[in-house]
Design goal:
heterodimer; A: mainly alpha; B: alpha/beta; elongated
């Protein structure tokens, strides 16, 4: 099957334009993880230098990988259910676009803002720790290798979360239900990130490679499986 | 129904029709949307598809537009067999203007059209969008958000969107539904313009005067195809030639007046007053009728050909179905 870049780009551009005119969605995407970052951040900022050796065994900031695991569901869950609810799905489906192209455009449109939000929140947390935490604590918490992991894993986790959200969206009839289920579907990934952050699952190089391979596989499989779940007839008529 | 009546003039002339449908049917579980539908639409023809709510009109359009899989039968659309393998290619060659415009309301008119130009992979999209905007008289509103447009203007945007890929076959599904008379007239003029450009148009509508005005041929669907042909032919088929006579007072002995008219078949008095006389040839019967009325001493108000609209044809056929269901 040949994927048309022009058609994928048409969906992506439309989605980004729509998002730009609906900035409240972006603000909500940014505010929720910021609010949930406050408590752990305060804990770190309150630590004395003497406690720095205690936190150096952990990869505390990896819990922020919970953001790309849950935040994209807000947009992804809207991808199909929202179009259907607005009555804009049928005009798109009567064009030559293939379901794989439509979903890829939707996924990329959810990925870009999600990754930006996750990076922005991470950057804010880093700056606050660097500026306000005790020097010893900051040195113990801010590992360059951890930053690399954050940068690398954020799009992979966001991608997987998006495919889960879109899969829910292809089956849901109500956008709100789709969004709630989409967030729930991202929770297991966030839990794994938290377990690694708090060293319940030891963060090793080998494990990192395994997770990268697993997430790449899940992203490709997610695209294929979601495309198969995308049934034009059921989406248009509500039957089957 | 005579199979030849479903054959378009173009097909009869030998060229492949724009749409050719043979015994097509669609079921959703036990529910039959439409059944055993056969017809052809020639290139450049405006073909009206009429029927009551739930008759299967929109489902037929969606099936021919490859959105739904037929349950039985076969079809060719824009030169291609209707099957899943040809879905992308068929959708490239046709356009459907759905009943609901389905525009992205936060985006401008131009943004909406740019999106769809991309989906159709239109070459030189900017120029094509300008052409489409010009065709629907929306050049001045290109930057307006679609959410702020009236229903009539949204229909125009929807039509402009359907023109972007320069379709061989354009399906218009209730294009004037919910529009006021002025907006509906604008859409009619746009359709007229497309007809003059030779675009094949498949028009579903509830508005019978719209079908009568715009369509070369019409089909009446009520799950199955009830009739197909030119509006005039359908009228003649269902309602024979007749003369309508209005008199100041009722005739004393109408049988005596009408019995010797050339080609006289039957007569009855309409509930609204006139005598309706079915004849073989109105032109031959009218002078004789005039003489007979004068000879009978009748005070004649008018003698005219009895005219039946497409609405009469439609109601006659649909009422037959209602009566069958009632029995």
């Amino acid at each position: 099957m040949k994927v048309s870049g022009t058609r994928v780009r048409a969906i992506l551009t439309k989605e980004l334009r729509d998002l730009r005119r609906n900035t409240s969605v972006l603000v909500a995407m940014l505010l929720i993880p910021l609010i949930f970052s406050i408590a752990p951040l305060v804990n770190i900022l309150e630590l004395s230098s003497a406690a720095s050796s205690g936190v150096s065994h952990y990869n505390v900031l990896l819990y922020l990988l919970g953001i790309p695991a849950t935040v994209p569901a807000v947009i992804a869950a809207y991808a199909v259910a929202g179009e259907r609810q607005q009555g804009t799905l049928e005009p798109v489906l009567i064009t030559p676009i293939r379901r794989e192209e439509f979903l890829l455009g939707k996924a990329l449109a959810a990925l870009l803002p999600s990754v930006v939000v996750a990076y922005v929140v991470y950057a804010i947390v880093l700056v606050l720790i660097q500026v306000f935490a005790q020097a010893g604590v900051a040195a113990a918490v801010l590992h360059p290798s951890e930053m690399l992991v954050q940068v690398l894993f954020t799009p992979l986790i966001a991608g997987w979360s998006i495919w889960l959200g879109i899969a829910v969206s292809t089956r849901a009839t109500d956008t709100r239900v789709a969004q709630q289920l989409g967030v729930v579907a991202g929770v297991p990934t966030a839990v794994v990130a938290a377990l690694v952050a708090y060293a319940v699952i030891p963060a090793t190089f080998g494990l990192g490679i395994f997770f990268v391979a697993l997430l790449v596989f899940l992203n490709v499989t997610g695209w294929r499986v979601t495309s198969r779940m995308f049934d034009r007839e059921r989406l248009i008529t509500g039957t089957k | 129904m005579n199979r030849r009546e479903g054959v378009s003039p173009a097909a009869a002339a030998g060229s492949e029709p724009a749409i050719s449908v043979a015994h097509l049917s669609k079921r959703f579980g036990d529910r039959v949307a439409f059944d055993d539908v056969s017809f052809e639409v020639g290139h450049g023809e405006v073909f009206g598809f009429l029927g009551p709510n739930g008759a299967g009109k929109t489902t037929t359009v969606r099936t021919l537009g490859t959105l739904l899989q037929p349950s039985g039968g076969s079809a060719r659309v824009a030169g291609l067999d209707l099957n899943p393998e040809n879905g992308v290619e068929i959708r490239t060659r046709i356009s459907i203007m759905p009943e609901s415009p389905g525009l992205y309301v936060r985006l401008s008119v131009r943004d909406n059209l740019e999106c769809f130009a991309g989906l159709y992979e239109v070459v030189n999209a900017a120029a094509r969008i300008d052409q489409a905007l010009k065709a629907v008289n929306l050049v001045g509103r290109a930057s307006d958000p679609c959410g702020g447009l009236s229903k009539g203007l949204r229909q125009r945007v929807s039509l402009a969107r359907a023109l972007l890929n320069d379709p061989q076959v354009l399906f218009l599904d209730e294009p004037t539904a919910g529009l006021d008379p002025v907006a509906a007239r604008d859409v009619h003029e746009l359709i007229d313009g497309l007809r003059q450009r030779g675009v094949t148009i498949f028009l579903t509508t509830h508005r019978l005067e719209e079908a009568e005005r715009l369509c070369d041929r019409v089909a009446i669907l009520n799950t199955t195809l009830r009739a197909i042909g030119k509006p005039d032919d359908l009228r003649l088929r269902l309602f024979p030639n007749a003369l309508a006579v209005r008199t100041v007072a009722p005739l004393r002995d109408p049988d005596l007046v009408f019995k010797d008219l050339p080609g006289m078949k039957a007569w009855h008095r309409d509930s609204s007053g006139p005598y309706i006389i079915a004849v073989a040839d109105t032109a031959a019967a009218a002078p004789a009728l005039t003489r007979a009325l004068v000879a009978a001493g009748a005070d004649v108000l008018s003698i005219a050909e009895s005219h039946h609209s497409l609405e009469d044809v439609y109601l006659e056929l649909i009422n037959e179905d209602v009566e069958v269901v009632a029995k």
